[in-house]
Amino acid sequence: MQSSLLSRRLLPFLLTGFSSGLPLLVLVHQLPAWLTDQGVSLKLLAGFALLRLPYSFKYLWAPLLDHTDPLGLGRRRSWMVLSQLVLVISLPCMAYVSPSSLLNINLPWGGTLPIAGLMLIGMWIAFWGATQDIVLDAYRQEVLEPDEIGSATGLHVGAYRMAVLIPGSLALVLKDNYAWSWGQTFYLSAAALIPGLIMSFFIHEPVGKVGERSFRHAVLDPFKEFIHRWGWKNALFIIVLIMLYKVGDGLASQLMTPFYRWLGYSFTEIGVAAKQAMLWGGVIGSFAAGMWMSRISIVKALFFFGIAQTLAIGGMWALSIWKATWGMPGVYVLIGVLILDAIGMALGTAALTTLLSRVTHRDYTATQFALLSSLITLPQVLINVHADKVVGAWGWSAFFLLCMCISLPALIMVIIFRQRLNRYVSKAF
Length: 429
Fold this sequence. Notes:
Elements lengths: L11 H26 L4 H6 L5 H4 L5 H6 L7 H16 L13 E3 L5 E3 L1 H28 L5 H14 L3 H12 L4 H10 L2 H7 L14 H16 L1 H14 L1 H7 L2 H8 L3 H26 L5 H29 L4 H28 L6 H20 L2 H8 L1 H10 L2 H9 L1 H9 L3
Antiparallel strand pairs: 1-2
Helix pairs in contact: 1-6, 1-7, 1-8, 1-10, 5-6, 5-10, 6-18, 7-15, 7-17, 8-9, 8-15, 11-12, 12-18, 12-21, 13-18, 13-20, 15-17, 16-17, 16-20, 16-21, 19-20
């Protein structure tokens, strides 16, 4: 890429990345913080990992986004506006959860809803958050040249991580220091999506036609094309690598808020120190990856960035050892470890997202990218619901060692099949 990383052509991906990250980060950070504040058990918190399921199965409705234009604004703009509008309206629904009891939700029109309703609201938000991801990922693929993908991915991932400023930092500080209710913080998160919604009305619509194929072909053709292009063995290799690459990282991040509380930190320290360190470390790592991805091969990026994210999990292990040996780590120790941790995880995310972009065919952008990115979260969801059992039986130190160990198979695959992987990338697009 010849132009600057922050060229005018790439700047919109800062805002799309922020909008893409915020709904999931509300479910991963803000909701668990609220539940932890109410004394919810680790078992129930782990169960809320099921809220990520729509992100694991978003390929099921991705063909609809490739072949429909619900608002008449163009395929991509219509689905951007629709998904973001629904999210802006839906996120404040969390505000109707009773502050005095987790067993009931107060409905605006009167009456209550059992806690299962909270899960349903979360699933609804996750569905539309995943829908937003489908269309934003497709848009990024369709408006950029191949040599811009790595840099744009770095910007997107960096902005995605910056979104944690709202649900994972500002919301906690306002709750802890300014007597904000949890309901008010969910309204704040909804408001943070409005700039992305406004931008969706003004972006350039990629060239593409609606309704070129029957729905049957719209669903089947992307899968048939992917298998035909790679062959069964190579396609299976790509799928397994994608599924394994972030599984340790995802498991390690599932119970971070309870882990911070176990270390002894207040919500203010979590919001200001821990989340800020993770944020800016992630931003640094993502933007660095965006610059490096245009200079090194995807195989080197997958390997070295994968090592970095595995070592990042080791930072959590080190904090757990510190707590067990010397007591609560100082805040500056926490900040230092978490900055390095976030850099490593961001590098791994950028490398894997770039790989997904490079093996996706542009005729089926939304469907194929949704399928491949869904494979990242599926094993995490299946494993993460048992995270509380591992912590309860083995403790935090053993938990993070396990996360590091299950990160290694993907790195081994990259080493053994590096030549084959280079061939995949060279014939992509």
